[in-house]
Amino acid sequence: MSRADHLDVAAYALGVLDQADTERFEEHLATCWACAAELETMVPVVGLLSGIDGETMSALEQTHTDPALLDRTLMAVRLDRRRDRFRQLLATAAAVVVFGGLTGIGFASIAGTDDGPQVVAEPTLTAPVTGPPSSKPSDPDDPGDGGTEHEGEQHNQVDPTTGVKTTMWLAKKEYGTQIDVYLTRLPGPRTCRLVVFRKNHTTEVVSTWAVPNGGYGTNLNQLPLELSASTSAGRDDITKIQVQSVDVKGVASPLVTLAGL
């Protein structure tokens, strides 16, 4: 029996021999313990090679004319399968990382060994992120809830006569006092002004503005009026702050007042 007959073991295991060669090899296999033993060792390799493409199969058919080609082909397929396995392990490791980040279970690291890459999960600890506890329930009408952050002490007032509603923030400054104003339920059209009253009974107009037809914070215009003003008066020198409406003759009337400051 020629050496080529012995090399048909791989081709026979892969099922690439034609009918005549298959019968010839089976006759040889019945009397050759070496080929029988080699064929037994090829069983796991056949499972590994079950997904190879037609080009590789064609190459295997040529191994009876080039003995070294079989070794090179099997080595190339093993390397390709090893790369596929490594890619699968990388995907598994990435999934472990994502899962660990979401649940706090841990993270994955990849270590290479002689038997191929391994995925090792290492535990970590995560702490929940929570905000500070609220000291009071949220008020949807409070401009400070989810709105612009304002500096200073907050004062709320609704005038029982005009219905105008305001929230004001007073902040001490080196130059005096900063006043942030939030107004709703303010009808228009009209001209308004913001007046500061001092302990020495003097007054100071710190801001003026025009209110459009739709007003501010009304059914016609739901947007509030927000403005900021400053006064040279120190915070402790202010007794009250008033929003006034001024008519065409210059006569002022109060719309809403913060008193007892």
UniProtKB/TrEMBL annotation:
Native organism is Micromonospora globispora
| Disordered, as annotated region | 118-164
Q: Which UniProt keywords apply?
A: Membrane, Transcription, Transcription regulation, Transmembrane, Transmembrane helix
The reply to whether Magnesium figures as a keyword in the UniProt entry is no
Q: What protein does this entry describe?
A: RNA polymerase subunit sigma
Short name of one Pfam family for this protein? zf-HC2
Q: Where is the composition biased (Basic and acidic residues)?
A: 147-156
Q: Name the residues that span the membrane.
A: 89-111
- State the source organism's domain of life: Bacteria
Q: Which residues form the Putative zinc-finger domain?
A: 10-35
Query: Key word Transcription present in the record?
Result: yes
